[in-house]
Amino acid sequence: MAKMATDLVSIDRLKQELRLGGATAESRAAFQEHDALLAAQIDAAVSFVAREIDAPLVETTQTLYVQPATGQHPLVFDVRALKRVSRFQYWSLSGALRQAPDGSIRVQDLGRLVLAGFRGGSHGLYPPATGWPAVRAGSLFRLEVARGLEMTEQTMALRQAIVLCVRQLYDGYGEIRPTAAFYALIQPWRVYG
C-alpha cells in the first residue's frame, strides 16, 4: 500500500516517462531542482485520479459516523477501498452528545468484516460476541478506518493514468484535462451513480 504519491510513480520513473535527463550523474544533478515540482505534480495527479475513481490511491485514515445496529445484526456502511477498521467508539447511555464518545470496542473484539456490495462499496461489520452495546438516543457509531486501493499488476493502468495527468501539468496546462486514453485506463475502477 502506498504511503505517499511518489510510491506510486517515482520521480525517477516520471523523468524517464517525460524523457528528462540521462543516466549520467551530471544530467541528473541538472534536473534535481525540478524534483519538488515533479513531486507536487505527482501529488496533484494522484489526487485527481483518486477523485475520479472514488478511492484513495494513497492510504488515508478517515472517520465515519454510522447509524447504530442492534443485537447481532451487522453494521452496514458504504465506503470504497476499505483496508481495515482501526478504532470503534460510541456514546453510551450516560454519555453526552456534546462531548467525545465515552465508549469503545476493541477492534480485535469486533466480529468479521465482510464486503457486501458492488465494487467494494458496502461492508457489513459483525458485532462482538456480546452484541452491540446500548447507545444514547440520537447518537451514531464512530469508526476510524484506513482506506486505500492496493496497487498490483492489475492496477498498472492507474499508474499510467497518473503519468498522463502529470504530463498535462508538466506541459504547462493550468488544469488536468482528461482524455479518452485517461478514461480508458481508469474504466474498470470508476463508479457510476
Explain what you see.
- It is a single chain.
- This protein has 193 residues and is an alpha+beta fold.
- It has five helices and seven strands.
- Strand 5 and strand 6 form a beta hairpin.
- It is elongated, with a radius of gyration of 21 Å.
- The mean pLDDT is 85.
Q: Which segments are poorly predicted (pLDDT under 50) over 5 or more consecutive residues? A: none
Backbone structural class = alpha+beta
Instruction: Give the neighbour order of strands across the main sheet.
Output: 1-7-3-4
Strand portion, in percent?
A: 15-25%
Mean of the pLDDT scores? 85
Number of helices: 5
- Supply Rg: 21 Å
Give the terminus-to-terminus CA distance. 27 Å
Number of DSSP E strands: 7
Shape: elongated
Which properties best describe this structure?
alpha+beta; 3-stranded antiparallel beta sheet; single chain; 193 residues
Topology:
Elements (H helix, E strand, L loop, with lengths): L10 H7 L7 H6 L4 H19 L6 E7 L8 E4 L3 E9 L12 E3 L7 E3 L6 E4 L15 E7 L8 H15 L9 H7 L7
Antiparallel strand pairs: 1-7, 2-6, 3-4, 3-7, 5-6
Give a quick summary of the entry.
Strand 5 (113-115) and strand 6 (122-125) form a beta hairpin. Helices cover 28% and strands 19% of the residues. A 4-stranded antiparallel beta sheet has the order 1-7-3-4, with no helix packed on it. Strands 2-6-5 form a 3-stranded antiparallel beta sheet, with no helix packed on it.
